[in-house]
Sequence to fold (146 residues):
Amino acid sequence: MNFKRKKISKRLNKPVPETCAEGKTKLRISFSIPIIAAIFIIIALFVGIGKAVSDIGVTILLKAAGEELQQDAYGHTNFMVLGTGGGDHDGADLTDTIIVASLDPENNLVSMLSIPRDLYVEDAKIGDSRINETYWRAKMYYESSE
Fold:
Protein backbone atom coordinates (compact mmCIF):
# COMPACT_ATOMS: atom_id res chain seq x y z
CA MET A 1 0.00 0.00 0.00
CA ASN A 2 1.14 3.40 -0.85
CA PHE A 3 -0.06 6.07 1.62
CA LYS A 4 0.61 9.75 1.20
CA ARG A 5 2.57 11.29 3.97
CA LYS A 6 2.16 14.82 5.20
CA LYS A 7 4.17 16.47 7.91
CA ILE A 8 2.10 17.88 10.79
CA SER A 9 2.77 21.51 11.35
CA LYS A 10 4.00 22.58 14.75
CA ARG A 11 2.68 26.06 14.19
CA LEU A 12 -0.74 27.04 15.69
CA ASN A 13 -3.52 28.51 13.58
CA LYS A 14 -3.27 32.15 12.77
CA PRO A 15 -4.86 34.41 15.40
CA VAL A 16 -8.12 36.12 14.45
CA PRO A 17 -7.57 39.79 13.74
CA GLU A 18 -9.12 42.07 16.34
CA THR A 19 -11.18 43.95 13.76
CA CYS A 20 -12.97 40.76 12.70
CA ALA A 21 -13.78 39.75 16.30
CA GLU A 22 -15.10 43.25 17.04
CA GLY A 23 -17.32 43.10 13.96
CA LYS A 24 -18.94 39.86 15.14
CA THR A 25 -19.55 41.34 18.59
CA LYS A 26 -21.11 44.46 17.10
CA LEU A 27 -23.29 42.30 14.85
CA ARG A 28 -24.48 40.23 17.82
CA ILE A 29 -25.28 43.35 19.85
CA SER A 30 -27.09 45.07 16.97
CA PHE A 31 -29.10 41.91 16.31
CA SER A 32 -29.98 41.16 19.94
CA ILE A 33 -31.17 44.66 20.94
CA PRO A 34 -34.30 44.58 18.71
CA ILE A 35 -35.12 41.06 19.90
CA ILE A 36 -34.85 42.06 23.55
CA ALA A 37 -36.95 45.18 22.87
CA ALA A 38 -39.62 43.10 21.09
CA ILE A 39 -39.77 40.62 23.99
CA PHE A 40 -40.09 43.50 26.46
CA ILE A 41 -42.93 45.07 24.41
CA ILE A 42 -44.79 41.75 24.19
CA ILE A 43 -44.52 41.20 27.95
CA ALA A 44 -45.69 44.77 28.61
CA LEU A 45 -48.70 44.24 26.31
CA PHE A 46 -49.70 41.03 28.07
CA VAL A 47 -49.39 42.65 31.50
CA GLY A 48 -51.38 45.71 30.35
CA ILE A 49 -54.14 43.64 28.76
CA GLY A 50 -54.34 41.41 31.84
CA LYS A 51 -54.64 44.43 34.13
CA ALA A 52 -57.29 46.06 31.92
CA VAL A 53 -59.38 42.88 31.81
CA SER A 54 -59.09 42.36 35.57
CA ASP A 55 -60.22 45.95 36.20
CA ILE A 56 -63.48 45.38 34.31
CA GLY A 57 -65.98 44.48 37.00
CA VAL A 58 -69.29 42.72 36.71
CA THR A 59 -71.14 45.93 37.56
CA ILE A 60 -69.56 47.66 34.55
CA LEU A 61 -70.81 44.85 32.32
CA LEU A 62 -74.29 45.15 33.80
CA LYS A 63 -74.33 48.92 33.21
CA ALA A 64 -73.48 48.31 29.55
CA ALA A 65 -77.05 47.06 29.08
CA GLY A 66 -78.20 50.67 29.40
CA GLU A 67 -80.78 50.19 32.13
CA GLU A 68 -81.02 48.55 35.52
CA LEU A 69 -81.46 44.81 35.04
CA GLN A 70 -83.73 42.74 37.25
CA GLN A 71 -82.19 40.56 39.94
CA ASP A 72 -83.46 37.40 41.57
CA ALA A 73 -83.90 36.84 45.33
CA TYR A 74 -80.16 36.18 45.71
CA GLY A 75 -79.14 39.41 43.96
CA HIS A 76 -78.03 37.59 40.79
CA THR A 77 -78.76 38.82 37.28
CA ASN A 78 -79.78 35.92 35.04
CA PHE A 79 -79.83 35.97 31.26
CA MET A 80 -79.66 33.71 28.24
CA VAL A 81 -77.10 33.88 25.45
CA LEU A 82 -78.32 32.61 22.08
CA GLY A 83 -76.27 32.26 18.93
CA THR A 84 -77.65 31.57 15.47
CA GLY A 85 -75.84 30.83 12.23
CA GLY A 86 -77.47 33.66 10.31
CA GLY A 87 -76.95 34.16 6.61
CA ASP A 88 -78.87 32.68 3.69
CA HIS A 89 -78.25 28.96 4.22
CA ASP A 90 -80.95 26.45 5.24
CA GLY A 91 -80.21 26.47 8.99
CA ALA A 92 -79.83 30.23 9.43
CA ASP A 93 -82.48 30.45 12.18
CA LEU A 94 -81.40 27.36 14.12
CA THR A 95 -79.95 28.23 17.51
CA ASP A 96 -76.46 26.71 17.66
CA THR A 97 -75.44 28.11 21.06
CA ILE A 98 -77.69 28.23 24.11
CA ILE A 99 -76.14 29.34 27.41
CA VAL A 100 -77.92 30.34 30.62
CA ALA A 101 -75.70 32.68 32.68
CA SER A 102 -76.04 34.06 36.20
CA LEU A 103 -73.97 37.07 37.32
CA ASP A 104 -73.23 37.49 41.02
CA PRO A 105 -71.96 41.10 41.32
CA GLU A 106 -71.35 40.82 45.07
CA ASN A 107 -68.75 38.04 44.69
CA ASN A 108 -67.73 38.84 41.08
CA LEU A 109 -68.73 35.37 39.91
CA VAL A 110 -70.39 34.12 36.75
CA SER A 111 -72.11 30.74 36.54
CA MET A 112 -72.88 29.41 33.08
CA LEU A 113 -74.84 26.41 31.89
CA SER A 114 -74.68 25.28 28.28
CA ILE A 115 -77.86 23.61 27.04
CA PRO A 116 -77.35 20.90 24.40
CA ARG A 117 -78.97 21.94 21.13
CA ASP A 118 -80.39 18.43 20.62
CA LEU A 119 -82.45 18.58 23.85
CA TYR A 120 -86.03 17.58 23.01
CA VAL A 121 -88.74 19.99 24.20
CA GLU A 122 -92.52 19.77 24.06
CA ASP A 123 -94.62 22.84 23.25
CA ALA A 124 -98.36 22.83 22.60
CA LYS A 125 -98.33 25.99 20.42
CA ILE A 126 -95.33 25.57 18.14
CA GLY A 127 -94.92 21.80 18.29
CA ASP A 128 -92.43 19.34 19.78
CA SER A 129 -88.87 19.53 18.50
CA ARG A 130 -85.23 19.84 19.37
CA ILE A 131 -84.52 22.99 21.37
CA ASN A 132 -82.39 24.56 18.63
CA GLU A 133 -85.46 24.57 16.34
CA THR A 134 -87.62 26.42 18.87
CA TYR A 135 -86.68 29.92 17.69
CA TRP A 136 -87.31 29.00 14.04
CA ARG A 137 -90.65 27.30 14.83
CA ALA A 138 -91.82 30.23 17.00
CA LYS A 139 -90.81 32.69 14.27
CA MET A 140 -92.82 30.74 11.68
CA TYR A 141 -95.79 30.40 14.06
CA TYR A 142 -96.01 34.08 14.98
CA GLU A 143 -95.34 35.34 11.43
CA SER A 144 -98.16 33.18 10.08
CA SER A 145 -100.60 34.33 12.80
CA GLU A 146 -100.19 38.03 11.88
Observations:
- The radius of gyration is 34 Å.
- The chain is about 40% helix and 20% strand.
- The chain has a mean pLDDT of 79.
